[in-house]
Design a protein that fits this description.
This protein is α+β, with helices and mostly antiparallel strands and about 475 residues long. It is built from twelve helices and 22 strands. It binds flavin-adenine dinucleotide (FAD). The site of flavin-adenine dinucleotide (FAD) has 40 residues, from helix 1, strand 18 and helix 8.
C-alpha cells in the first residue's frame, strides 16, 4: 500500500535539515527530497559561516525576530549535535565619522531586535583586540554573542539526527511538479511521494516551487552571487573576531574572519547573476574582495590563498523571510527568501515553521524514544586529529585503519573516512568525504588524497573506481583505463 508522509520537506539545506531535525521529536512520518546528491547542496555550502548576532535586519521584520533567537540557540545546539562552533564575537569596523554614525544606527537597531551586550568601542580598545586591523579604523560595534560555525556540518548534523530518528531522505530528486490537494503529490521525474503537509525549503529555487502551487505567488528571488577566498591555516590568527565593514545598500560588505576550522575567510562581494546556480568565481570578483580585505587588514597575506568559491544569495523582492502557507494550498508551507542571516537564524526559522505547520493543522505528539544526538550511541567520536597522543595510540591499536593517514594536510585517517562512508547519510562521492572529514580541504586541496579517497569509496561501496564522482551526476573523475 502507498505510504503517505505526514510532512515532506523539499530541500536539504540548513533550512530543510533543521526543520527535519525539529520535527524528528514528534511521532510523524517525515521525508526530505533533495535535488543534489548530498545535504547542503545550495547556499548552505558556500557562505560566510557567521552566526550573526542580529543587528542587521530592520526592526519589525521576521528576519530580525528570528536572527537573535537563532543565534541564542546555536551554542547549545552545536554542542548537542557535535558541530564545531566558536563564540568569537564580531566587530563592525568604522573608518571615520560617517561610518561611526552608522554604528549608532546599528546599535539602536540591534537593541530593538533584542541582541544582548552590544556596545561601541573606541580606537584604543579596538586595536588592542585586533592588532592587525588597519590603523585608519576609528571605532567598532562589538557584538559579543556573534560566532562562527561550519554551515554544512551543522546541516549534516541536523539531517543525521533526523535520519536516526526515522526521517527518510531522497537525494538526486529535483522536484518538477506539485499537485495540491488534501494530500499533496510531489514529483521529481519518475519519482513521486505523497504527503499531508509539504514545506518548501528549496533555497534560491523556492519561489519557482511556490509558483508550481500558486502561479500568482508574488515574491521573486534575485540570485546575487558572493565570492570568497580561503587562506591557509597559517593565516588563521590574522583576526580573532569576525571583522565587517560598515554595511551598505548592497549588503554587509566584505569581511575578514577566522573559520571555525582555523583558516581565514575573506569575502564576499555581491553581484546579481543571470543563472541561479552560477557558483563560478571571477578574476575581477577576487580582485574586488582582495581590495576589501586589505582595507580592513592591510597586512592580510593573500599569497596564502588555498581556494576560492562562491555562493548565491536568494535575495527576495520583499527583503524579508517569507514563512507562510500558500494561499492556494493551505497544507503547503513556503519558506522563501531565506537569505542571510538564514544560517544564524536556522534553529529559530525551523521553530517558526513548526508552529506554522501546527497552525495549518499538523498534530504533534512527542516520541518516547527520541534521540537528541547525532549518532545512535550519543555524541560522535572525535576526529583522529583532535585526539591526544595516548588516545591516538590506543585507537590505532584497536582499529588499525586509524593508523593510515590519507589526507596529510588535514591529518585525516583511513578510519575517519570509513566512518564517514558508513554513518547515516554516509559519503558516496569525493566531495561528500571532504565535507564529512575535511580530507582535501588543506593546502594541497586534495591533490594527494583524492585518488586514495576514490579507491576507498570504490572498495567500501563495492562499485567500480570509474563510477566514483567528485560531486554526483556529471562530475566523473575517471572515464576508463589508459592501459
Ligand atoms: C554569499 C553568502 C553569504 C552568506 N553568509 C551568511 C552568514 O554568514 N550567516 C548567515 O546566517 N547566513 C548567511 N548566508 C545565508 C545562508 O547561507 C542561507 O540563508 C541559508 O544557507 C539558506 O539555506 P536554505 O536551506 O534555505 O537554502 P539552500 O542552502 O540553498 O538549500 C536549498 C536546497 O534545496 C535544494 N533544491 C532546490 N530546488 C530543488 C528542487 N526543485 N527539488 C529538490 N530540491 C531542490 C537545493 O539543492 C538545496 O540543497 C549567506 C548566503 C550567501 C549566498
Amino acid at each position: 500500500m502507498e505510504q503517505i508522509y505526514d510532512v515532506a520537506i523539499i530541500g536539504a539545506g540548513v533550512t530543510g535539515a533543521m526543520l527535519a531535525h525539529k520535527l524528528a521529536k514528534y511521532k510523524l512520518r517525515c521525508a526530505v527530497i533533495e535535488a543534489g546528491c548530498d545535504v547542503a547542496s545550495g547556499a548552505t555550502r558556500a557562505n560566510s559561516a557567521i552566526v550573526h548576532a542580529g543587528f542587521d535586519a530592520a526592526n519589525g521584520t521576521l528576519k530580525a525576530a528570528l536572527n537573535a533567537k537563532g543565534c541564542a540557540q546555536m551554542p547549545e545546539l552545536a554542542h548537542q549535535l557535535d558541530v564545531p562552533y566558536k563564540n568569537n564575537t564580531s566587530l563592525v569596523v568604522a573608518f571615520g565619522e560617517e561610518d561611526e554614525q552608522t554604528l549608532n544606527v546599528l546599535l539602536e537597531r540591534g537593541r530593538n531586535n533584542g541582541v544582548p551586550g552590544l556596545r561601541i568601542i573606541g580606537k584604543k580598545e579596538l586595536h588592542e583586540l585586533e592588532p592587525n586591523l588597519s590603523p585608519d579604523a576609528t571605532a567598532a560595534l562589538l557584538a559579543p554573542t556573534a560566532g562562527i560555525i561550519c554551515p554544512y556540518e551543522l546541516t549534516m548534523a541536523a539531517a543525521e539526527n533526523a535520519c536516526i530518528n526515522g526521517c527518510e531522505f531522497f537525494f538526486n530528486r529535483r522536484v518538477d511538479a506539485i499537485e495540491a490537494g488534501d494530500v499533496i503529490t510531489v514529483r521529481a521525474g519518475e519519482f513521486s511521494l505523497r504527503a499531508r503537509y509539504v514545506a518548501n525549503c528549496a533555497g534560491v529555487h523556492s519561489d519557482e516551487l511556490a509558483r508550481m502551487v500558486d502561479p500568482d505567488f508574488p515574491i521573486r528571488l534575485i540570485p546575487r552571487r558572493g565570492e570568497y577566498m580561503i587562506l591557509d591555516k597559517a593565516e588563521g590568527k590574522t583576526a580573532s573576531a569576525t571583522l565587517f565593514m560598515v554595511p551598505s545598500k548592497a549588503g554587509k560588505g566584505i569581511l575578514v574572519s577566522p573559520t571555525v576550522d582555523g583558516n581565514l575567510l575573506v569575502g564576499p562581494n555581491a553581484h546579481e547573476v543571470s543563472c541561479k546556480d552560477d557558483t563560478s568565481t571571477t578574476a575581477p570578483g577576487l580582485d574586488e574582495i582582495s581590495a576589501g580585505a586589505r582595507r580592513l587588514v592591510p597586512s592580510v597575506n593573500l599569497r596564502a590563498v588555498i581556494t576560492s568559491f562562491s555562493g548565491v544569495r536568494p535575495t527576495p523582492t520583499t527583503d524579508d523571510f517569507h514563512i507562510q502557507p500558500s494561499v492556494k494550498a493551505k497544507n503547503f508551507l513556503n519558506l522563501v527568501g531565506i537569505e542571510s542571516p538564514g544560517l544564524a537564524s536556522s534553529p529559530a526559522v525551523a521553530d517558526y515553521a513548526v508552529d506554522m505547520l501546527v497552525s495549518m493543522g499538523l498534530e504533534l505528539e512527542k516520541k518516547d524514544n527520541y534521540n537528541p544526538y547525532r549518532t545512535e550511541n550519543g555524541h560522535m567520536r572525535k576526529p583522529f586529529r583532535e585526539l591526544s597522543d595516548a588516545e591516538k595510540a590506543e585507537l590505532c591499536k584497536r582499529e588499525p585503519a586509524y593508523g593510515k593517514i590519507i589526507c596529510r594536510c588535514e591529518t585525516i585517517t583511513e578510519g575517519d573516512i570509513l566512518a564517514a562512508i558508513h554513518r547515516p547519510l554516509g559519503a558516496k562521492t569525493i566531495d561528500m568525504v571532504k565535507l564529512r572529514t575535511r580530507a582535501g580541504m588543506g593546502r594541497c586541496q586534495g591533490g594527494f588524497c583524492s585518488p586514495r579517497v576514490a579507491e576507498l569509496l570504490s572498495r567500501e561501496l563495492n562499485v567500480p573506481l570509474d563510477a566514483i564522482t567528485k560531486r554526483g551526476c556529471g562530475s566523473k573523475l575517471l572515464y576508463g583505463k589508459t592501459k
